[in-house]
Design brief:
Number of helices: 11
Order of helices and strands: HEEHHEHEHHEEHHHEHEEH
CATH superfamily: Vaccinia Virus protein VP39
Largest sheet: 7 strands, mixed
Structural class: alpha/beta
Number of strands: 9
CATH architecture: 3-Layer(aba) Sandwich
């Protein structure tokens, strides 16, 4: 056994309201979800852990986290679909809450706050966390039929989600808001976790590099421990093209959404994105950085509403 690592008690890089700032308590998680037990064993330092290179172990851990921390009665996803790291997804939600709060003293927790999750995926993760933490309702959209079926099943089999989450199929793969938002429908925010890579080859190279860094040797094949389908991992032109198209379409929904947001994986994507936002006359742009372990993540937020219109929106909606 190698010399035991000394871990900080609090993961200070995570959002202050995150439920994941302490190390995993596997005894408590197993009590909430006994299916996790077979995957928990001491690691080389003698600490209880799971094999994060085993997709089944990652799935079992995520299920336990969601049942224990977010009151779910059921959660599952189809094989090979993206199994999201919960702490990072929770940070996006908490930071959106801060964005909506603005200069107000209170964080909006009312159930009349509504969000649009573009690419809800098979996991329905953002509506789960946003509804539990803040009581928000959600529209979740996706182009993938299996993802839609999975998220609908999660929504239907969890009593707290039934009346607060609506899953809608996006029939046109190039659209973001068209075909999803009705003409008279408003949402307080839109969020999105875009495909990062420009091709399947880029996605595999990134996975190989990640595994090499973690294991210290070059694997012969990328094993996606968190899973992921083509439309979850890569798109033509990568995230830069994806976010650009999203921004251009968002102009046509300027009065139907207070804040548009999207995760940005690559720092190099920011500069061209700022130029596009300037070109489309966004009235306010914010970049919110989030730290998750050794990785720095971020999302960009923009609105087309003036300061007065934002205040009026808050007064009428909240």
């Amino acid at each position: 056994m190698q010399k035991k690592k000394v871990h900080p008690k609090i993961k200070s890089e995570l959002h202050p309201r995150s439920r994941h700032r302490e190390r995993y308590n596997f005894k408590v998680l197993i009590k909430s979800s006994p299916e996790l037990a077979p995957f928990v064993a001491p690691n080389k330092y003698g600490d209880d852990s799971v094999d994060f290179f085993n997709p089944k172990a990652v799935l079992a851990l995520n299920r336990a986290l969601l049942i224990h921390h977010y009151g779910l009665e059921f959660w599952d996803i189809p094989e090979y679909y993206l199994c999201p790291p919960i702490p990072g997804r929770a940070d996006y939600i908490h930071n959106i809450a801060d964005l909506l709060k603005g200069d107000n003293s209170e964080i909006p927790k009312e159930d009349h706050i509504k969000g649009l999750d573009i690419g809800v995926g098979a996991s329905c993760i953002y509506p789960i966390i946003g509804n539990y933490e803040y009581g928000w309702s959600f529209i979740g959209s996706d182009t993938n039929e299996a993802a839609i079926i999975s998220s609908k099943q999660i929504e239907q089999r969890n009593s707290n989600l039934k009346s607060n989450v609506e899953i809608r199929r996006q029939e046109q793969s190039n659209n973001f808001f068209y075909g999803i938002l009705k003409p008279d429908e408003k949402v307080d925010f839109a969020m999105c976790n875009p495909p990062f890579h420009a091709s399947a080859e880029d996605a595999e190279k990134a996975s190989l590099k990640k595994l090499k860094n973690l294991k210290g040797r070059r694997p012969s094949k990328a094993i996606l421990n968190f899973g992921g389908q083509q439309d979850e991992l890569w798109t033509k032109g990568g995230e830069a093209r994806f976010v650009k198209d999203m921004i251009y379409e968002s102009r046509n929904f300027a009065k139907q959404c207070l804040w548009f947001t999207s995760l940005i994986s690559k720092e190099t994507t920011l500069k061209p994105t700022y130029k596009i936002l300037q070109k489309v006359n966004a009235t306010e742009v914010k970049t919110i950085e989030m730290g998750q372990g050794q990785k720095v993540s971020r999302f960009i937020a923009w609105t087309f509403l003036s300061e007065e219109e934002q205040k009026d929106w808050i007064t009428k909606r909240w």
